[in-house]
Every structure is written in C-alpha cells, then in structure tokens.
Amino acid sequence: FGLAAALGLEQLLTASQHFTRPANQRTWAILRTSFLLICAILAVVAGLSTRPLPLDDEGVALQNATNWLSESDLDQTSVIASHVWFEYFYDGDSSGLTTPAADLQPGTIVVWDQHYSERVGLVYDDLISLPDCWQEAAQFGDGPVAAIFIKSARCPAD
C-alpha cells in the first residue's frame, strides 16, 4: 500500500511539472482566471434569480401579533413567546417559557401559537378555560393561528 501511494505521488508530481514550465504558466493562469470568472458570474445570476418565499399563515399571524403588541399600551416588561417568527418581527425583549405557566407573574404577556406553544406547555384550551387567570387580548388567523394572553392578578394560587 505504501509503495502504491509513493508511485501515485510520483506520477502526480510528474504531471504537475507540465503546468510549472514557463510556457504553460500563462495557460494555467488564464484557465484559473476563467474558472473564477465563470464561478462569479454563476453566483451573481443565481443571486438575481432567487426570489424570497412569501410568509405562510403562521408568519403572517405572528407578524400581525407583533404589530398589535407594539402598537398596544400594554406593559411589555415580560413577554413570553415560542415561535421564531415572533422573535424575528418583535423589536422588544422576549423569552421562551422557562417556568410553568401557572408560576408566571401577573401582567406577563404570552404569545400563543398553534405550532410550538403546546410543546412548551401553553395549551390554548387550558388558557381559554381559565378566564380568571388568563385574559385573551387578541387573536390572529383562523383557528386561531396565534393569540395574545395576559396573566391576570386575579388568578388563584395553586
């Protein structure tokens, strides 16, 4: 195996000497420059022909939720959200859910979404079924796709 590798390397070096002769250096430079120019042209063409994907229903709903929240007079000190679209559009500070929903402080704003919220323990039916604990401030999309809830101070302790 070692002998075969040495012979292969010797053949490679012999072949590469063809391109290091003065007459072929210019040819090699032209080929290299042409290759780089073609790559650059292909990159520009690909960049110009690529179109961004439009927002899906979740993206639109969460963009509307961030707009609604930004225009509201709510105290946005504590905003909890789990969807990346909300994080993308929201200019304020928000965080993911790190404590159980029952332990959140009154006034906490929860941005519920149909995709990820239930995975982190924010079940829409549970929030709706506890009107003394959660006030639904707004809905976005059909179903809804997203909703904004505010933790109430009237919520009884567990």
Structure description:
With 158 residues, the protein is α+β, with helices and mostly antiparallel strands. It has 2 domains: 2-49; 57-151. It has helices at 2-20, 22-49, 57-71, 84-89, 124-128, and strands spanning 79-81, 109-113, 134-140, 146-151. The longest helix has 28 residues, at 22-49. The radius of gyration is 30 Å and the shape is elongated. The relative contact order is 0.12.
Would you list the SSEs in sequence order as H and E?
Answer: HHHEHEHEE
Summarize model confidence as the mean pLDDT. Answer: 86
Low-confidence stretches: none
Number of domains: 2
Strand-pairing-aware structural class: alpha+beta
Largest sheet: 4 strands, mixed
C-alpha termini separation:
73 Å
Question: Globular, elongated, flat, extended or rod-shaped: what is the shape?
Answer: elongated
**Strand percentage, roughly?**
5-15%
The rounded Rg comes to: 30 Å
| Sheet with most strands: strand arrangement | 1-2-4-3
Query: Can you count the beta strands?
Result: 4
**Portion of residues within helices:** 40-55%
User: Total number of helical segments?
Assistant: 5
Topology:
Elements: H1 2-20, H2 22-49, H3 57-71, E1 79-81, H4 84-89, E2 109-113, H5 124-128, E3 134-140, E4 146-151
Parallel strand pairs: 1-2
Antiparallel strand pairs: 2-4, 3-4
Brief overview:
This protein has helices at 2-20, 22-49, 57-71, 84-89, 124-128, and strands at residues 79-81, 109-113, 134-140, 146-151. By secondary structure, it is α+β, with helices and mostly antiparallel strands.
